[in-house]
Write a structure and sequence with these properties.
Largest sheet: 2 strands, antiparallel
Strand order of the largest sheet: 1-2
Number of helices: 11
Distance between the termini: 24 Å
Radius of gyration: 21 Å
Structural class: mainly alpha
Length: 247
């Protein structure tokens, strides 16, 4: 019988990993000698590295949580996959031939394993990712039991949370590729909300840059606002959103 995964455990593991990453940033930061202004470029680079790690951790978390939510309550996913598979096999003789060779091979198990879930979600075995919040909720509604789909819907529909997810994804993408378009998009994400893009709410205010565009993301992340570096505020907000996904 397939081992059942628990999405709440995935949340706890993400928070532990994020806390460990932030502690690593703090530890390395304190190892750099000198006063507040000494070795500033190196300290700024550490802030950017910590933010990039958080972006990778978030992408991995969303993949693992989605798979675990299916494993915990697989009925919606199994019905969807069985329906899709049945339609494809009905187009020709392939289904009948496969069944002739291996009876039952086209049936989707009631409780698929983790490997089976991942293979059905992404046959190429890459990380399951969602390019934006709209895509995330679309797949959540298609694959997940209502209690888990509603968790994603709640995050996406809560503007203070949705803008943070957009920010960490945009920040990770820019730091990975350093494209001019990525920087332009990042600057839109750190403004106060305008036309549906940007930061919303008092809880996200430390991350807002109200003045001119950020030319250097590392400088933006290293800046102290309200007694903490912006990268520390970012870690706090992203882990808050993850914890809100517990059932």
């Amino acid at each position: 019988m397939a081992r059942t995964l628990n999405p709440d455990n995935v949340v706890d593991e993400f928070v532990d990993d994020a806390n460990g990453s932030l502690a690593r940033f703090t530890r390395l930061y304190t190892l750099i000698e000198g006063g507040a202004n000494a070795h500033r470029p190196e300290k700024q680079a550490l802030a950017a590295d910590a933010a990039f790690r958080l972006g990778i951790l978030w992408e991995t978390f969303v993949h693992r949580w989605h798979v675990a939510a299916i494993s915990k309550s697989p009925d919606v996913f199994v019905a969807r996959v069985a329906g899709d598979l049945g339609k494809e096999l009905a187009k020709g003789e392939l289904g009948a031939k496969l069944e002739a060779l291996t009876p039952g091979c086209t049936a989707v198990p009631d409780r698929p394993t983790k490997d089976q879930i991942e293979g059905l979600l992404d046959p190429l075995r890459r990380n399951v990712t969602f390019k934006d919040n709209e895509t995330w909720i679309k797949h959540a509604k298609a694959d997940l039991d209502g209690v888990y789909a509603n968790k994603v819907s709640s995050i996406v529909s809560t503007r203070e949370d949705a803008c943070i997810i957009a920010l960490i994804k945009g920040l990770r993408n820019y730091l990975a590729h350093k494209s001019p378009a990525g920087l332009t998009h990042f600057n839109a994400l750190i403004r106060a909300e305008n036309n549906g893009l940007g930061l919303v709410g008092q809880v996200n205010k430390p991350l807002v840059r109200a003045e001119r565009d950020a030319r250097d993301v590392a400088v933006y992340l290293h800046r102290t606002v309200g007694g903490k570096r912006r990268v520390e505020h970012l870690y706090s907000r992203v882990t808050d959103v993850a914890q809100a996904m517990k059932v």
